[in-house]
Design goal:
The protein has 122 residues and is α/β, with parallel strands linked by helices. It is 37% helix and 29% strand. Strands 1, 2, 3, 4, 5 and 6 form a 6-stranded mixed beta sheet that branches. Helix 3 links the parallel strand 5 and strand 6.
C-alpha cells in the first residue's frame, strides 16, 4: 500500500509502504519525515493499530530525515502499541536519523535493530 504524498509542494518527499509478515506489520517510510509529511506515516500506523496489529516494525533504512514531528508520530504509535500489549521496533536507521533519536534520548524507549531481519526475529 503506497500512501503517496500530501500537497503538491511535498510530492515525492515521503512514501510509505505497508505489508504484513507473520505477526508483524512492517511500515517502510522512504524520504523525509517532518511536519509536512508526518500524517503519511501516522495514518498507516494508526490503521494497523486500529486493526489489532500491535507489533509494528518500522523499516527506517530508506528514511533520510526525521524531525521532532516525525519522532512524535513514532512515540505516539509506541504508546498505543504498548498499551495494547505490543510494541514498535525500529530497524536499519541511517546515521542522520539515528542521531535524532540519540540526542533526544528516544532510542532508549524503542527496540532498535540494525536491520529489518533482526527486528523480525526479535
Amino acid at each position: 500500500m503506497d500512501r503517496g504524498t500530501v500537497g503538491s509542494a511535498n510530492r515525492g518527499r515521503l512514501q510509505v509502504e505497508v505489508r504484513t509478515e507473520g505477526h508483524s506489520e512492517i511500515v517502510t517510510p522512504s524520504g523525509e519525515l517532518d511536519h509536512h509529511t508526518a500524517d503519511l506515516l501516522r495514518a498507516p500506523l494508526d490503521e494497523a493499530l486500529d486493526q489489532g496489529r500491535t507489533r509494528l516494525v518500522v523499516d527506517c533504512s530508506h528514511l533520510e530525515f526525521c524531525d521532532s514531528t516525525g519522532l512524535n508520530v513514532l512515540l505516539g504509535a509506541r504508546l498505543r502499541a504498548e498499551a495494547a500489549g505490543g510494541g514498535v521496533h525500529l530497524a536499519g536507521m541511517l546515521p542522520v536519523v539515528a542521531r535524532v533519536f540519540e540526542i533526544t534520548g528516544a532510542e532508549a524507549v524503542f527496540s532498535v535493530h540494525d536491520s529489518l531481519g533482526a527486528a523480525l526475529t526479535d
